[in-house]
Write a structure and sequence with these properties.
alpha/beta, Rossmann fold, 265 residues, six-stranded mixed β-sheet, 10 strands
């Protein structure tokens, strides 16, 4: 997903060594407690309250700020419901913040949901064309990419098979290969490598290593704490939508594992 989807995502006035700047981001969700379903119920609600509103709001993220430098793996951790995926979806422009802004230096793409937009009735090659068209690539650009994607995904024998017959591992390989081939400057990753076998995960990690070696940037949510400890340059810790810590990975992981964090999560 490219950064042209979000008006909040801009590279204006960022220092040359900064890849992403998240500035005072607040993202609110609606919570419906009781929702009238008939005209009569709507009329009664309007007469009682003077408005047609049946929900309250809560902050999934609250005043979150940090910067990510170029060439870094920036990890995001936290308990379930801490706001990790909301943060990534806001960075790539799927969600719009109520307040604050996000600025980026370079092209942004995401591995948030592998195979999003794929049609199960189509084969791998047809889905690569579909995926590429959704990202505004030309027919020629997509055609040039196909051999690389099929080879990386190791689907040469199944390229013409409808993907509804694929195993979860085959589907993951195709989704990852199609996404990573666009080679963005900034890659947003949301625990997509939990599927697939160990050999495939190692192959993906090798791609990430090459990515960083070329000065590109990765922002990732992961429950693989060992991976983050060994590979992340900086880790941000979230709890209930608030940013508790940004800094050294060992300190972040120690705080995440502490009794005080777990009891309040």
């Amino acid at each position: 997903m490219s950064n042209n989807l979000s008006a909040e995502l801009t590279s204006q006035e960022l220092a040359d060594d900064i890849a992403v700047s998240v500035e005072n981001i607040t993202v609110a969700y609606r919570s419906y407690k009781q929702r009238p379903t008939s005209l009569k119920e709507n009329l009664i609600a309007f007469l009682n309250t003077g408005k047609l509103r049946y929900y309250s709001t809560f902050d999934a993220l609250s005043d979150v700020s940090f910067q990510v430098k170029k060439g870094q793996i920036f990890g995001v951790i936290g308990s379930n419901g801490a706001g990790k995926s909301t943060l990534l979806r806001t960075i790539v422009g799927v969600l719009r913040p109520v307040t604050g802004q996000i600025r980026a230096n370079g092209s942004v793409d995401s591995l948030i949901q592998l195979g999003a937009g794929f049609d199960p009735e189509l084969n791998a090659i047809e889905n690569i064309y579909l995926n590429g068209s959704l990202h505004c690539l030309s027919y020629e650009e997509i055609t040039e990419r196909i051999p690389r994607i099929i080879e990386f995904a190791e689907l040469e024998e199944f390229a013409l098979t409808p993907i509804k017959y694929y195993s979860s591992g085959m589907f993951a390989r195709l989704g990852f290969a199609a996404a990573i081939d666009k080679d963005p400057d900034i890659l947003i990753v949301d625990e997509v490598l939990a599927v697939g076998d160990e050999r495939f995960r190692k192959k993906c990690n090798a791609v990430f290593d090459s990515f960083i070696a070329r000065g590109k940037t990765i922002v990732t949510v992961s429950h693989n704490l060992n991976y983050l400890r060994d590979n992340a340059h900086i880790i941000a810790l979230l709890r209930k939508g608030k940013l508790l810590f940004v800094g050294d990975p060992k300190e972040a992981l120690a705080l995440y594992s502490s009794d005080s964090y777990q009891s309040a999560a």
